[in-house]
Amino acid sequence: MMGRVAFFLLLVLGGALGQPRPPQLFVASFKTHSISVYDLGARGDAEPLRRIVGEHTRLDAPHQMAVHNRELYVANVNSVLVFDRDSQGDVAPKRMLAGGKTLIQDAHGLAVHGHELYVSNSSSSSIVVFPLQAAGNTAPQRVIWGPNTKLSRPYGLAVTDREILVANSGGGNLLGFAREADDDAGPTRVLRGPMHSPKGLALCQPWIYVADSYGGQIFRFDGDGQLESHLVSPGLHPVALDMHAGQIYVANCFGNSIVVLPGGELLRLACPSGVLITH
Known about the structure:
The protein has 279 residues and is mostly beta strands.
């Protein structure tokens, strides 16, 4: 009898452990040098489920984030920090990519694809690519930089099997590069619209969503790079965005809030600079 009970409990527990976790909302704050994690149902001034904050975290004006294999990657001014996905409190990163050889300088965009890590540097107008497990003062394996690239203050990044897409803030456009691009390679395509300062970028196949911090604008391009729709929300200052269940979650930096579209204000917090929804 006890054996049957133990077997039944093992089945129940195994099934529970195998259940997908509910989606969570990760928010980076430029002002408080922190990352807060919320349940997607959180509203208003709700307390986060957990926060990564404090001197040991080395967080300094974090921006775009990515989760891969239960690790959280953070673009962090002059470094990339890697934490366990469930980290909380004043915890040190498990890995840090920083130093002169990395060429990471004023990092705003970050993406993980396959076994590679991509970082966009706003002040040096470059994209640097590393092996995913790179740490310390490690030189990138590829650097996209030079006049032919047309890069000018790049921000948000997204990477597919074939392409690197970057919100080219200084050029008022989106640039697409071959995924293996290196050195002074020119873009394979340029996506244009009535954009002024595109910063946030998210893919939701087949759509490409772009947050333009000037004038509270959100753009949607189709997979061929044609502008499909254009949303203007006065008072919005979008610097990052992500998608979930047909809704757009926007980091409204100067408005000190996360806004969901369609909908309205979701959460109040100081100067959000990155937003990520994970499962």
